[in-house]
From TrEMBL:
UniProt entry tagged with the keyword Lipid biosynthesis: no
Domain of life: Bacteria
Subcellular location as annotated: Cytoplasm
A biological process from GO: DNA replication
Matching InterPro entries: DNA-binding_RecF, P-loop_NTPase, RecF/RecN/SMC_N, RecF_2
Main localization category: cytoplasm
HAMAP family (alphabetical): RecF (MF_00365)
Keywords: ATP-binding, Cytoplasm, DNA damage, DNA repair, DNA replication, DNA-binding, Nucleotide-binding, SOS response
NCBIfam families: recf
Organism (species): Halobacteriovorax marinus (strain ATCC BAA-682 / DSM 15412 / SJ) (Bacteriovorax marinus)
Protein's name according to its UniProt entry: DNA replication and repair protein RecF
UniProt similarity note: Belongs to the RecF family.
GO molecular function terms noted in the UniProt entry: ATP binding; single-stranded DNA binding
Length: 370
């Protein structure tokens, strides 16, 4: 798998950002500025360019387009470097109807697979509190390293949507159609469950080690899958779907299959949501993410880009320093933002880090004079 690092980025008409050329180094890039100046917008622009999607929910062109723009189009221009430091220019022209992508000036035929990991201030809270977030987190991260999982998940989801529409509309002969769909659902459920279990066992070996490496504390960190179909065969799952069908017909949707499965993060054997302080939850979540990055490296001998949107909350100064020391020791490219004055002071001490100051959407090399 090819890995890329961002070297230069320029966006025109994207949110509040001015079309300044933003330069990045291949190590730590600190994006600093006061609230509401455009730090997260820089991460978002890079996310859209790399994955074609925002990390903000329900956002697309109408939200991206700068409010005062004269032209209703957004232009992204960027230079990425591959692992051999070869340059690749990636640009995009986006309007309300479509987006045209170009690599090295030529229209792009296939989507580029630029891998990245994004962390925002609310993720730890959401991960601990919301099962749908946990599922989505796992699906997204497993899909990034396993294309077969991504394909099976997409097929499972479209079969499930079709099953649910049959259950709610009940057209003629819908039960026959559901029987055929259940064979598909059972097949994909087996693949998804086995891949989830494999992923959890692989990441487990990195979690505890990463926690210790970042925060110098020994805690056993583990994630378990909470599922009713672990160890079940395709036939077992098919039977289970058929047995639940009368109930599904009454409520008009599929009441259980692997889309309802959940994950539990265990901290020294205890559910971290129930037993850990907010700081410990944040440390566990960050360790999980960095364990994922280690697993990624183990599998592909390369790193994703790491975008960290202000994670200083809930952590004390000692933990900030440890996190910074870990980032300094790491070999991946990281873009980290903060508006927190104290954390900013810590980031500013990083030797060799690229500091990008953002003020009202403009990029400067100098700290804000206010
Ligand atoms: N479509 C848009 N056009 C112009 N400005 C926008 C648009 N969407 C958002 N903004 C502005 O962008 C700014 C938010 O930027 P961003 O979220 O990057 O801030 P930030 O520097 O990360 O702040 P914080 O430290 O508070 O998280 C706000 O001032 C907001 O009004």
């Amino acid at each position: 798998m090819q890995s890329f690092k961002i070297s230069k980025l320029q966006v025109t008409n994207f949110r509040n950002l001015q079309p300044d050329i933003i330069e990045f180094n291949s190590g730590i890039n600190c994006i600093l500025g006061e609230n509401g100046n455009g730090k997260t917008n820089i991460l978002e622009a890079l996310h859209v360019l790399s994955t074609r999607k925002s990390f903000r929910k329900n956002t697309a062109f109408p939200q991206f387009l700068g409010i005062d723009c004269e032209q209703p189009e957004i232009i992204f221009s960027s230079v990425f470097l591959d692992e051999h430091s070869n340059k690749m220019s990636l640009s995009a022209k986006m309007d309300a109807k479509t987006t045209h992508w170009f690599v090295d000036g030529q229209p792009m035929k296939r989507k580029l697979d630029i891998k990245l990991v994004f962390i925002n201030p609310f993720d730890s809270y959401a991960f601990h509190n919301t099962s749908s977030f946990r599922r989505q987190w796992m699906d997204q991260h497993i899909s990034q390293i396993d294309s077969n999982y991504k394909k099976c998940l997409s097929r499972y989801n479209s079969s499930l949507r079709f099953r649910n529409s049959l259950l709610s509309k009940k057209p003629a002969k819908y039960l026959e159609q559901i029987r055929a769909i259940d064979l598909e659902l059972a097949r994909y459920s087996c693949i998804l469950t086995n891949t989830r279990l494999k992923f959890l066992s692989e990441i487990e070996s990195f979690c505890t080690q990463t926690f210790k490496e970042i925060f110098s504390e020994e805690h056993l960190l583990k994630i378990t899958l909470d599922s009713r179909v672990i160890g079940a065969s395709e036939d077992d799952i098919y039977q289970m779907l058929q047995e639940r069908l009368p109930k599904d017909e009454i409520v008009g949707h599929t009441t259980y299959c692997v889309h309802k499965d959940d994950y539990v993060l265990l901290f020294d054997g205890l559910n971290s949501f129930e037993y850990c302080s907010l700081g410990q939850q944040k440390m566990s979540y960050l360790s999980l993410l960095f364990a994922y990055i280690e697993l990624f490296r183990y599998n592909f001998n390369s790193f994703p880009m790491v975008l960290i949107d202000d994670v200083s909350g809930e952590l004390d100064k000692n933990r900030w320093q440890k996190l910074i020391n870990y980032l300094e020791r790491s070999s991946f490219q990281v873009l980290i933002t903060t508006a927190n004055e104290k954390f900013k002071e810590e980031l500013e001490t990083i030797h060799g880090a690229n500091k990008i100051y953002v003020q009202a959407g403009s990029i400067t090399n100098m700290p804000n004079s206010r």
